[in-house]
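queue> pop job 88
queue> type: inverse folding (structure -> sequence)
queue> payload:
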């Protein structure tokens, strides 16, 4: 009888502590900016089938704009490049640009390590020498979400 109670208690604890399969397959996301306004979203897909990092801009950036990302006080940029016409699409709700970095690309590993070790990510979008967005986001809570899955 006691053995059954202990087994039931352990199963309940494990079920509570272990994330569900659906939750584990959700992309781990972090956003810089305002959800209803200009923003840049980083999504690490860790669903077992694909592993990639998607960087998406919304209402900020268009072809020719320069997207720059660095972590903490690093002098070297983690990522810096001009957005191209193949990166960006236009719709009723403005420009959306997407860059996909496959896990086999060395940039994926650099992002994963920097986001896990860093405390603050700095994101800038500059178009024709004019700043469209400059934002800092904390990576502290996000690091726990990434866990050891990268």
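queue> result:
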């Amino acid at each position: 009888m006691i053995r059954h109670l202990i087994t039931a208690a352990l199963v309940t604890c494990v079920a509570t502590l272990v994330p569900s399969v659906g939750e584990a397959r959700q992309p781990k996301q972090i956003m810089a900016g305002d959800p209803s306004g200009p923003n840049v979203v980083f999504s690490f897909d860790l669903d077992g089938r694909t592993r990639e990092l998607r960087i998406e801009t919304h209402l900020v950036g268009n072809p020719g704009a320069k997207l720059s990302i660095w972590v903490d006080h690093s002098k070297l940029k983690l990522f810096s490049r001009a957005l191209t016409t193949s990166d960006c699409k236009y719709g009723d709700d403005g420009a959306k640009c997407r860059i996909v970095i496959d896990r086999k690309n060395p940039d994926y590993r650099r992002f994963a390590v920097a986001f896990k070790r860093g405390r603050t990510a700095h994101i800038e979008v500059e178009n024709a020498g004019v700043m469209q967005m400059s934002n800092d986001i904390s990576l502290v809570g996000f690091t726990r979400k990434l866990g050891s899955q990268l």
